Protein 1
Amino acid sequence: MSPDSDHNDLLLQISTNLKNTLITFGASSHQYQAVLQTLKDLLQCIEQHDKQHDKHAQIDPDMLSQAMEFLKLG
């Protein structure tokens, strides 16, 4: 499995977890904030990886868009 595929899989899992914690606990909950921080950390890690390897990861645009929407909520 390629690193780009791993990123997409992780984004999907984190986005799903974020959606579930939002519905279950609400945006101000510790659980939601923890998952949101995980998403932010992953996006930062992807960005750093791209800079180090001087290339852009092949991240699914729909998945990235969904992740960015969650960042707007948090």
Note: The chain has one domain: 3-73.
Protein 2
Amino acid sequence: MPVSVLILIALDLVLAGLALFGGVNLMMDPTGVTMQIDPTIGYIPFVSNFMPFAIWLVVAFAALPVILAFGLYYDKKWALYGSLGLAGLEIVWIATQAVLLYPLGIAGWWPVIISYAIVVAGIAAASVYLMLRSSVRTYFHWGMPRIKEPGS
């Protein structure tokens, strides 16, 4: 297994950890008071609490990367495609958060939010880069048909 694949697995697990932390915090307090984000609720359309976001974080960005990491470890091509899609989804999610939260004028939290966004988007971009490396594409037989060996 190429080192690039091992790094990709590690990046998926780091993203899962970050999402699990945020998702569990929001599940424990869907109002956002403990994370000091409750004033934003009035500005975000169709949101009375943050429970839908918490569930989204845990399912899409915590559980899915763990499943994809196992798939990558066991040489499953679907996991490579899934990781590519997840990286794109992460970038879109972070961009959406930036667009929604920046105009709210959360001056005290903005450095934390932008730092987190840069880290997550950087991990997603690094994942895309790793997936497009020739060693990873060759390992997963991406772009070429799998050749069955005689007797297998």
Note: The mean pLDDT is 75.
Protein 3
Amino acid sequence: VVVNTCGPYRFYGEQVVEACIKAGTHHVDVSGEPQYMETMQLKYNEEAAKKNVYIISACGFDSIPNDLGTVFVEKNFNGVVNSVETYLETGSSGNKSSGASLNYGTWESAVYGLTHAKELKGIRSQLFKDQSTISDIEVDTIEVKGPTSISVPGYEKNVTFGVLYDVAYKIIGTDEEIVVSTTRLKRSLEMWQSLNVDAQVWHPFRNEPIPIIFDLGVDKDFGTGAVKITPAHDKLDFDVGNRHLLNPIQVFTEDGRVDNHSVIF
């Protein structure tokens, strides 16, 4: 096994990976550079598999201890792990330090990683070309103000976005209802469910209860002031769900198809 600890790996890593595969030697590194790691997977995975060689990245201090801590929590505590936060305290001994410091190679890796972050989109589109689900890094965000006709790949005609639909949710145990304004009527399936929230409404499409939560992330002056949470829609929805310890419903498979939760549609 060759353990490579010399970065930045975007400059010095590929040569070692290639040599290890040719020699039939396993390769381990401590890289935290997504572009390097995914490029190596894209270029050398097939060749490494043929020679039964393992190429393993991200085995540094910021990876393995975090993974071990997460595994420990999952095995020793009841419930589902919602999120993990890591705290790192550093110190020095001997001569007094003039302040915080960082290894030059780590700093250089970070600078180049941020500079070339957008290049990950192209790499991942090739790496996962057999799957149609995508991440936020592959999405170009367009702000739409009001109904707007937009050309969408795969559609012969333009698709209209920005149209608000009002959907009434009956409050369970009362005769009242909450009206939610949404531009994504078909995504009403992708709501969050909660374990410990008392206030609930009845979902008009799924025919089951869903929780009511209160969060400052909602713009009370937009639409009716009530919104539904769609965990796969954007980071804001995801963060709101995490803050309230909600469990998301997975509605898409890894190949981009809707799963059994979408039978009614």
Note: Residues 34-50 form the longest helix (17 residues).
Protein 4
Amino acid sequence: MKAQNCSFIGVVFASLGAGIGAVNCLALSSHFPKSTVAMWSSGSGAAGIISSFSYAALTEPHFANLSPKTTLLVMLIIPILYASTYWFIMKVPDTVHQIDILNPKTYLIKSKNSNASSADPIIPILASDAVNPFEDYEIQDLTNRVQQKNLTVKDKIQLFWPLKKYMVPLFLVYIGEYLINQGLTELIYFDCSHGFDLSKHSQYRWFQVIYQLGAFLSRSSVQFFTLPQFVLFLLPILQIGNTIFLAFDAIYFFVPHIAIIFSIILFEGTFGGAAYGNTFHRIHNEVAPDIREFSMSATTLADSGGIVIAALSAIPLHNFICNQQNIRIKP
């Protein structure tokens, strides 16, 4: 029980760190050229595939055959690399507020320009409708020249409405995506002859690798082409379709071979990665520069909110499918 509690605490802190990192780093990207969002999208996808593949390979009996505990201890080098990159390698733009740890007064951001105060109207939200004096500059230069608005709580709430076209599709895609990851894939398994001679535990780990591969490929594609807005509204439908298909397979086991499930999970990751990468790429390009930082940060609530809803829904879904499996297995 003690080991289980430690595991739960570890998951909580890992999730907390990931959430804080996502909401702050995406907001920080608004101070960099637009290519930064594509690089962030690709990098986060690469992190998923590298970490999942490393864990699967290190714990796989056919490869390194390390224990999960030893594998996690090896992975502790990653947070050190994160900190070193941020504090010592990355050059922070002058437009980013800096604090002095020993001076608490610097912890709060003070408005330096009354023209950028919350008294100004916060609409239009689109960069193409922004104030004319900046129209001659490239969009990536606008953020460096335009101070972010000092938004009140009311202003921030009002901004959520025009952001809905970005947030709603992402929210729905992530509900379907994490229902699969947290409530279904652990219930889908094959015998050795139909599962590439993998154990049940190994099958689950390789499901995660395939999922992360799809996410990495689609997130990286933003650097080469972007999806039109209507496709972003289509992705939730496709993802929910994946969820329904896998839910029925978890009950009836009608898929004959694990290779088919691998392909479906690859598409699952592709849909999720495409929604994530294209959503934030569009926000960085389309939202007015003086509210872009908040918009990038606020939209992270869509994917994290979808994950939370999926996690809560996965518990009763898992129990329901387990009961159905038990009923079908009984003679």
Note: The chain is about 65% helix and 0% strand.
